[in-house]
Amino acid sequence: MRTTLLVMLGAALPAVLVAQAPAGACTHRGNAAALAQRASPLDSAQATIDGATVKVCYGRPSAKGRAIMGGLVPFGEPWRLGANEPTRLTLPFAAVVAGVRVEAGTYSLYVVPQQAAWEVHVNRAVERWGIPIDSAVVMQDVGKGTVPVETLAQPVEQLTLSLATGATSELVVEWEKTRVRIPIRKAG
Predict the structure, then answer these.
(1) Beta-carbon count within 10 A of 121 CB
(2) I need a labelling partner for 89 at 20 to 30 A (CA). Which of 2, 28, 49, 65 fits?
């Protein structure tokens, strides 16, 4: 009975920690020692769009000499757009992400990469491990859009997500020799 109770409490603990995290904070599973041993560190990027802060949280895997697109990340299969927990996008306003209209909140992103374009899925399942992306996860999709792939002249060793603002706002994904720009705009 005592072991069962401890296991039940341990399983509930991450949800409690996540619930107490400030709005927009990057959440993760595990303690500091476990996080320090991850091969792919947790990172984030944020930008101000129309006076409000948009934030993306993700795991940063490295290429380490491996073929990434079409290799480690197979074409035509869902990918969590990072490592470890799913990549999460926090929006303080209603927005359109890759053509998908969403309300203010936090969403996970995953993609189905191809050589010429990526299918970007905006999803409600944020408190889970990044894989598998199975039917239960897909059922929580808000929608999907398609963005073109650009080829970089110089390779990027570690997956990098950044938020660019200006005439248009976008989540920029770069890894190996691939760049993808996912448009984000405030819904009007």
Answers:
(1) 24
(2) 65
**Domain span at 13:** 2-186
Which three-class secondary structure string do you get for 128-148?
Answer: CCCCCCCHHHHCCEEEEEEEE
Rounded to whole angstroms, what are the CA distances from 176 to 21, 70, 95, 112, 162? 33, 11, 29, 17, 15
Q: What contacts 17, CB < 8 A, 6 or more positions away?
A: 27
Q: CA–CA separation, 142 vs 107, rounded Å? A: 9
* Residue whose structure tokens are 């940063």: 60
The pTM (predicted TM-score) of the whole model is 0.83
15: its two tokens: 């949800």
In order of 35, 45, 86, 139, the CA distances from 71 in angstroms are: 26, 26, 20, 27
Residue 101 and residue 94 in contact, taking contact as beta carbons nearer than 8 Å? yes
How many independent structural domains does the chain possess? 1
pLDDT in tens, 91-143: 999 999 999 999 999 999 999 999 999 999 999 999 888 899 999 999 999 99
